[in-house]
Amino acid sequence: MAKYIFELDGQLDFYKTYLPRVDKSLSIEQIQTDYTDGVLNGNLLEFKLNINDLNNVLFQAIKYLSSMRIKGKSIPANILLISLNTDQVYQFYSKDYLSFIERVYTLGASKENSGFQGNTPIKTFNLKDSLEKENFITVLKSKNYTKINLDENCIVGWGERFYRENPLAKKADFIGEENGKVKIIGEIRKPDKFKQFIEPYTGDDNVRFRYLMDKLNDNLTQKNLGAFYTPKLYAEKSLELVREAIKRVPQGNDYVIIDRCAGTGNLEQFLTKEELSHTIVSTVEYYEYKVLFELLGDKVRHIIPPTEENDTFNAGLVRGADALSEDFVQSKLIKQYIDNPKCTIILFENPPYAETTSIEHQKQKAGKASSTWKNSFVVQEMKKEVKGTASNDLGNAFIWSAFKYYLRQPTDSYIVYSPVKYWKAQHLINKKFLKGFAFNRRHFHTNIDACIMVALWSNEDNVELTSFILQAYNIEQEKLKDDGVLKIEKIFTNYSKTYYDGRKLDGDLDNGILTGLDGLEANVFVKKRISPLFNDNLLGYLVADGAGFDNPDLHSSLLVAGRYNGNGFFLRKDNFMEKLPMFAASRYITYNRFWTERARIMKSADGSGEYLQAVKDGKISAMLQKILLFTCLETQNHMRSFSGSDGRFYRNHLCLDCTNGATLAIEKLVDFEPNEQEKQLLKQWELVFSNAKKTKNYDQTLTYGVYQIIDELNTNYKDEKNKTVYDYPELNGHLNTLKQMVKKYYLDEIVPFLFEYQFLK
């Protein structure tokens, strides 16, 4: 082989040379996975220009295999270390390093590898020798793998792979065990699909995986049942609220602590022996029930059902343990305490979180299939009293039913984990708040930084309560971190009820076009929910949907024509300036991702009276110009200029490109007096636009905003390693700088105004 200066060049030449002999159907992109230099059949390949420390490079390869094991990837039998400039390949068997592969490494694979003690290579190939080269090709064709041992570090990855490759499989098919009445032997104990890749798991039960049981459900069951996991540090902290509730028990009363969705008992793990003796637990998922029974069965007052019977297993669930069923609500075991006036009821729960209108359900097209709980007794009864979208949330069914069926006396209490919207926006309950904490949702088996509240509610009405405070705690380095005090304020009015412009004017025609989220004209085949309105008075279409910030880019749009699925209003030239704060507010979570903000801060129109008066009096004209400037430079403004299928030209008027004459935005900013930060923003826009005009795709007949420049002019392609390469790096750099400047401007100048007038609350 040639002498190489760059490793990438050597890799590409290697694959061009050997792939035609090994498997010509494979592409380099298919081989270079999991941040490795390549996985080819049963071989992990690691390239270096020159291998000067074999042990160092071997340890790097071992770390790659460790990561693959955690993800549920097959572990190649061979490790091949390739020294490009010396034409040497060193072969090792991964099975010889299994104990190292089955460890977890936190640093990057290339970090701190010196000092590793490896064995002598199984074989060293000299690629200058034709016979050895042919033998090496034989190794590259081999498809052998090293069997790994399952543990808590990799069980989720292998579970996800199992359900992905076996879409009809259920949890029992994966982790089934011989203990108990139901003897379904799962894949982990008797490998079939993975018999080449994993050793049988020999544990008698699944207690080792107790903190992961919710993640070991198949995807549809996860969406239907929600998650039951509570981090240990948060579970321990919330016991402070439980003990406050116990202090409220009248002298002489017995008390019970009920958890209808206990999972594997995460919440109860730090209760004292005495407290457990007052506790009643239940969970609906069969394998969680078995772990719960194993861990707490002999410690709690009751577990539902008390013992496993021949019919306990019910298609992966526990017969008699569905907390939303009428049978459970009427359970004699629990009713004996509810009907006893000398017994105080304390509910302590982290209800499953599942919202069937969420984007996750829509992506999986699983909304209806995973909504069986919506037909339950509790939800049907709830709908008779609770109107609106609150019934779409599984957690709300637990909260509503707690006060409806279990709490009866003023000294009864509910300690519940849930996002704050059930109180803040949905007004599901109006009870007396005693104390609470805010926790980071990221630590509850999710990937989202968001606020979860655990609140201690007294069973006493308090309709006057409009705000309270929570002490916030994150988890860092396995310790609680105090993140200060957070205020929770109730909201009463949405944008759509107050600010949306529903006027119908003379000149409105129904023969315009509709657009998609990307700002282009909508596909003719999509289902359209609004009329394609056109009027010379129309400027665009604004969506600032809902109170919360789930999927903010889906619920926030600014388009040159109506959005095909609606949920917004047509923006008109005579009053668009006063409407733009809604669009600005809808970007809050995008630019402030600290965990305390999402699910706590929401959009509201509660300040509309003061705001509209300020608009009328001209008190905030300068501020509205600032918001207009932000809107023109914000990338979520997806207004474009183009010719529609209706024969009309649609021009983006909310941008700063005046090549074809002043836009409406330019006209509104004619008397704007920019401060220093705004001068820098405008200067950066000029840098962006001057470079945009140099691009191949630039069309001088169009009026460009930032988004259209990004999407149509800032072109790119993928290189051989699937990395993005921009055709105009100077333009791309100026755009990236502009984005950061807009973010800072938004947080500095716009956000305080949005809170002042309660667009954010």
From TrEMBL:
Report what the protein is called: Uncharacterized protein
State the organism named in the record.
Gallibacterium anatis
